[in-house]
Design goal:
This protein has helices at residues 20-28, 40-43, 63-66, 80-92, 104-108, 112-118, 143-149, 169-192, 202-208, 218-237, 242-249, 266-271, 289-299, 318-336, 340-348, 360-363, 367-371, 413-420, 424-432; strands spanning 9-12, 32-37, 70-74, 95-98, 123-128, 154-155, 162-163, 197-201, 272-276, 281-285, 354-356, 375-380, 384-389. The protein is α/β, with parallel strands linked by helices. The protein has a six-stranded parallel sheet, with helices on both faces. Strands 9-10-11 form a three-stranded antiparallel sheet. The protein has a two-stranded antiparallel ribbon with strand order 6-7. It starts with 8 loop residues before the first strand and ends in a 6-residue tail after the last helix.
């Protein structure tokens, strides 16, 4: 069965993760993705042996995911004849994707204007580190840089220093936005016949992760925000742990600054957090009062807000204050007394949002993830049985699938050149001149 993008041809000039992840999704949706790689030795130059597929010289483990559903040709784009091959692919393509460092596309002749001369209705997609405009647009970078600029750093192992999240959120969100933007541009072209350029960045992806907090209303928040910033700067000057600085600048849902945040609050102390159980960890997420009421009753936490006849006045009493203070410890005791399975059964019986905490190694054994095809088992010709990132979108009539397995860098060079109309003697000449690599 064909995917929803069957017939769409994508010229993929991207490397690393922010870029190739998006074209992976589009390839799984049925698009024909032609991946133009640098010479193989450059691609794998800094990869440890453990990062390669056993028995393959030019196939990285990461490419089992981001290199799948693509065909690879390896070219030295510093040579004019190699660029002509790319232009020939572009004439047959609907979309060109690149994520070069600032200035590199122009230097190589892979910029928007170069492709627009070849095919005016092309869609041209760029994923950058910091965006196309503004004083920092030329900043090169990887996910860690984008997380720095997007307010997404978390405390490191001992809480003293900022650290990137374990998941490269700037990269992943950027390539999802890339794929979404390309699909929208394809729809626009179908309606109007017009191609267009589009771009996103790792910085934009990092910022999107803060959607619940990136709200400020000047007439309400300005004074508090500046006071919080001044306090944070004092902490930085005093070399306070980053965890303290993060708490001082954290804001509640909807971006409203919360005076109780630095001292903890009832929601994040009791109802929206991770607890240690007798044999593991369980997460609960009770953001509304209905769920909080049910969790309070199920675990007998004694929340005075839910007493019969509770009022704003009764909650101001010393007794109520003490009960609220004791709730965090009481909740932690309740969870510690039970196994994860026991506490999940109890909470799920009350329709409370909860889940076991899985580490990434445990996800491979999740029947739920496999049945939803969020993870897929796939037989790779070199690696054998693999379990890979699956398909985040379900289509009733045009399902996503891995069109073909990830291949080594340059594996389809001759095939792609033949598709473009090059003769066998021309292909041999390109190989001898090291324009076509591998």
């Amino acid at each position: 069965m064909s995917g929803p993008l069957e017939g769409v041809v994508i010229l993929d000039l991207t490397q690393q993760l922010a870029g190739p992840g998006g074209t992976m999704l589009l390839g799984d949706m049925g698009a024909t993705v032609i991946r133009v790689d640098p010479p193989p030795a450059q691609v794998v130059a800094d990869v440890a042996p453990s990062g390669m597929v056993a028995g393959e010289k030019y196939l990285r483990r990461v490419d089992l995911n981001i290199g799948r559903s693509k065909r690879s040709i390896s070219l030295d784009l510093t040579k004019p004849q190699a660029r002509e091959i790319v232009y020939a692919i572009a004439r047959r393509a609907d979309v060109v994707c690149q994520n070069y460092r600032p200035g590199v596309a122009e230097k190589l002749g892979m910029d928007l204007e170069a492709f627009r001369k070849i095919k005016p209705d092309l869609i041209y997609s760029c994923v950058s580190a910091y965006g196309d405009r503004g004083p920092e647009k030329f900043r090169p970078g990887f996910d860690i840089v984008a997380q720095s600029g997007g307010g997404s750093m978390v405390p490191g192992p001992d809480g003293s220093m900022p650290s990137p999240t374990a998941v490269p959120i700037g990269d992943v969100t950027a390539f999802c936005m890339e794929a979404l933007g390309i699909v929208a541009a394809l729809y626009h072209r179908k309606l109007t016949g017009e191609g267009q350029a589009l771009s996103t960045s790792m910085l934009a992806g990092s910022l999107l992760q803060n959607i619940l907090r990136l709200i400020t209303i000047d007439k309400v928040d300005r004074e508090d925000r500046h006071a919080a910033l001044e306090h944070a700067r004092t902490l930085v000057a005093g070399k306070a742990p980053y965890s303290d600085i993060l708490n001082a600048t954290a804001s509640g849902l909807g971006g409203q600054l919360s005076g109780t945040f630095t001292g903890g609050n009832l929601v994040t102390d009791v109802y929206y957090r991770v607890f240690r159980t007798r044999d593991g960890y369980v997460t609960v997420g009770c953001l509304n009062l209905r769920q909080q009421r049910r969790m309070n009753a199920a675990l007998k936490l004694g929340d005075p807000r839910f007493d019969s006849g509770a009022s704003s006045e009764s909650l101001k009493t010393e007794e109520a204050r003490l009960r609220l203070e004791q709730m965090k410890g009481k909740a932690e005791e309740r969870f510690a007394e039970h196994s994860s399975a026991e506490i999940l059964e109890l909470l799920e019986g009350q329709d409370i949002a909860c889940a076991p905490v899985l580490n990434v190694l445990e996800t491979f054994d999740s029947r739920h993830l496999l049945e939803n095809r969020y993870l897929v088992e796939y037989e790779h010709p070199s690696a054998g049985k693999t379990t890979l990132v699956g398909h985040p979108i379900w289509f009733e009539k045009t399902p996503m699938r891995i069109k073909h397995p990830a291949e080594p860098v340059g594996a389809r060079g001759e095939e792609i050149l033949s598709w473009l109309g090059y003769s066998s003697s021309q292909i041999q000449s390109l190989r001898e001149e090291k324009i076509l690599c591998r």
